[in-house]
C-alpha cells in the first residue's frame, strides 16, 4: 500500500472509489467496484454524505430493491482506494480531500 502516488494505483474489485459526474456534483459520488469491463468498470453506487455513514444505494426493480449498478470509465474516477471507518464513514482526511477535488473540478470548466 503506497499512498504517496495516488495516480499509480490500480483499481481492484470491491475497492471504493470517488467518481466525478457533473450532474451529481452537489454531493460526494462514491461507488464500489464490482466488475472490470472493456470500457472501464461496473460499480455499485453508494449513498451517504461527508459526515454520515455510507451504504450501497438501492433502486426498485419491480417489488424488490437491488443495488444501483452503473458503468464508469477509468477517467471518471478522481480518488481511489477509499477506506471507510468501522462506522462506514469517510475519514476526515478523505472528506477534506474529496471536497477539494470536487471544488477544483467545478472551477475548471467555467
TrEMBL record:
Listed GO biological process terms: brain development; chromatin looping; digestive tract development; embryonic viscerocranium morphogenesis; establishment of mitotic sister chromatid cohesion; establishment of protein localization to chromatin; heart morphogenesis; regulation of gene expression
GO molecular function, one term: chromatin binding
Top-level taxon of origin: Eukaryota
Coiled coil: none
InterPro entries, sorted: Scc2/Nipped-B (IPR033031)
Entry GO CC: Scc2-Scc4 cohesin loading complex
Protein name, per record: Uncharacterized protein
